[in-house]
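Collaborator request, handled under Task 6.
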Amino acid sequence: QVQLVESGGGLVQAGGSLRLSCAASGGTFSSGVAGWFRQAPGKEREFVARIWSSGTPNYANSVKGRFTTSRDNAKNTWYLQMNSLKPEDTAVYYCNYRTGIVVPFDYWGQGTQVTVSS
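Structure tokens returned to the collaborator:
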């Protein structure tokens, strides 16, 4: 059974940094796309970052230049380094793993709260 577990969330002041981790188990996770999404109160879940199996990252415009995603396939873990945090980054952050090309399937973590105070 696939399970994704996020860690590293918390409360930080504006301008600070946090590093989120997503530990995956119950399968192999080197060939799919490892991603991060977030959901703020009253808003829809939105894309934050992803990293392809090749190691190529993509970022939402709102976090480009501040967030960095990486993955360690040997540990079945991927990361989101968040720098220069802003109050508008406050949200529940979810890690995601997408497998399959013709018929993609998404796995989700349970979410971790990130709160940025002004």
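The cover message to the collaborator said: "The longest strand covers residues 91-99. The chain has no helices and eleven strands. Please let us know whether this matches your experimental observations."
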